[in-house]
Task: inverse folding
């Protein structure tokens, strides 16, 4: 019998700084470096064990309780913005040759998209400061919230970046957050992106670079949500393509707009997203462009949705323009506020419809009076203060009149809250007699669109710009029967 039993411990691989692989009665033993341990923890799925980390890795940031969670640093911090002290996250590593990843809000629930597609005016950006700068993000491709503008092909990415400039859509996202914060509701992560190109017709837009980029943006939104372990949802898709269309007739524009919405709905279905809400501002033209087939064609879209969930948030004549026909900085904020109202309402299964005029017909017992029938969420109001300077006729005028009739008064019918009685000094005549509201006005020089009106409903909203915003009626051109 041997004097001693074989050893049950030993070393199979030794390095200068210690044993690497050994064995004992339980099997092999591995001694791993701290960097390898950290790498293993980074690869663990979300919700797995986390490692505490020194907050100094974030730089000079007022942060604490930092830990690793998968590919992310997650931490508490006191950062600029109205969100207060909250939990944030940042990717641990950046892509090759990229700058350090951005800090974004760590939120509950889905990642919500606020997307848009349209012409060049929708791509305008400015330097407004967001109230919630860590809750509004965009695609992490260094193009910003205005996207590629039809000039390059988008790359697939699940990265997200904070915004250094603002589009109307990022302002909409920020406005939604401001309202939710004021009501002590959850503050989600909102992904804002606009895709545009220089197409000269809406048919070209459907077949052009903007829609191709939009398709990739939807894919990138879904990828970014998956990277966070969250679902992707879209609050709205803004449609903005009217004056840019210099080729289409009115019917062609309407048919193509329905086709565009179908294409976008199909894109959403391809990515497992629900049918989108489409929003728009009813374009009322500029200071000197007040009429066109396309501008008039918007009225058809106001009442004929073609099965799509589409809403006009406001008419464009209520917003100030610069000399190039673009909304001023104040107007862009007000547009965002009105679109946020519509988006919040419709995504809560609440109605949102601007007053729309549907039919004009002569009164049988008085040919000098035209009855204009409409539809609204509440009683029609003719604003006596006339804040938009619509004049005595409240924005109405007669087109194709051969009798020289002039409108002397406009009033809401006391017996029907959505009927207007428009009285003329003499019976108007003409085979093509048309009653126009906020369409075809003479050029203006007061910083507002040439078209304007004084008809609204009872809705009002105190804008942070200091003005009271109303839900004004949509422009219309109605044949008089």
Result:
């Amino acid at each position: 019998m041997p004097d001693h039993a074989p050893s049950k411990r030993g070393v199979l691989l030794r390095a200068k700084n210690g044993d690497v692989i050994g064995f004992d009665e339980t099997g092999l033993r591995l001694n791993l470096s701290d960097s390898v341990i950290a790498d293993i923890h980074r690869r663990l799925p979300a919700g797995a064990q986390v490692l505490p980390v020194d907050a100094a890795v974030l730089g000079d940031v007022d942060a604490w309780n930092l830990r690793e969670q998968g590919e992310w640093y997650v931490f508490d911090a006191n950062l600029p913005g109205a969100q207060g002290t909250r939990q944030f996250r940042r990717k641990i590593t950046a892509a090759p040759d990229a700058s350090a990843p951005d800090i974004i809000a760590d939120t509950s629930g889905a990642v919500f998209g606020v997307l848009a597609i349209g012409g060049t005016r929708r791509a305008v950006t400015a330097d407004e400061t967001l109230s919630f700068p860590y809750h509004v993000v965009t695609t992490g491709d260094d193009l910003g919230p205005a996207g590629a503008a039809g000039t390059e092909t988008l790359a697939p990415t699940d990265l997200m970046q904070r915004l250094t400039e603002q589009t109307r859509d990022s302002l909409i996202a920020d406005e939604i957050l401001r309202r939710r914060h004021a009501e002590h509701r959850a503050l989600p992560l909102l992904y804002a992106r606009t895709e545009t190109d220089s197409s000269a017709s809406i048919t070209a837009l459907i077949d052009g670079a903007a829609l191709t980029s939009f398709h990739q943006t939807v894919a990138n939104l879904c990828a970014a949500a998956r990277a966070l372990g969250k679902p992707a949802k879209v609050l709205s898709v803004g449609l903005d393509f009217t004056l840019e269309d210099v080729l289409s007739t009115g019917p062609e524009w309407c048919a193509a707009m329905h086709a565009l919405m179908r294409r976008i709905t199909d894109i959403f279905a391809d990515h497992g997203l629900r049918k989108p809400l489409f929003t728009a501002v009813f374009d009322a033209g500029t200071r000197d462009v007040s009429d066109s087939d396309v501008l008039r064609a918007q009225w058809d879209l106001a009442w004929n949705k073609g099965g799509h969930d589409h809403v006009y948030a406001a008419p464009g004549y209520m917003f100030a323009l610069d000399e190039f026909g673009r909304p001023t900085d104040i107007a862009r904020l007000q547009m965002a506020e009105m679109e946020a109202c519509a988006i919040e309402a419709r995504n809560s299964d609440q109605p949102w419809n601007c007053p729309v005029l549907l039919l004009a017909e002569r009164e049988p017992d008085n040919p000098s009076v035209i009855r204009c029938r409409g539809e609204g969420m509440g009683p029609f109001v003719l604003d006596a203060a006339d804040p938009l300077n619509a004049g005595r006729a409240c924005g109405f005028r007669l087109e194709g009149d051969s009798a020289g009739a002039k409108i002397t008064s406009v009033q809401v019918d006391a017996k029907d809250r959505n009927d207007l009685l428009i009285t003329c000094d003499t019976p108007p005549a003409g085979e093509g007699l048309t009653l126009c509201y906020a369409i075809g006005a003479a050029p203006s020089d007061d910083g507002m669109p040439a078209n304007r009106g004084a008809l609204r409903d009872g809705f009002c909203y105190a804008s942070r710009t200091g003005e009271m915003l109303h839900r004004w009626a949509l422009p219309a051109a109605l044949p008089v029967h």
Remarks:
- The CA atoms of residues 63 and 389 lie 52 Å apart.
- The chain has four domains: 1-31, 34-104, 109-346, 356-479.
- The chain has a mean pLDDT of 93.
- The helical segments are 34-43, 168-182, 202-206, 209-227, 250-270, 293-303, 329-346.
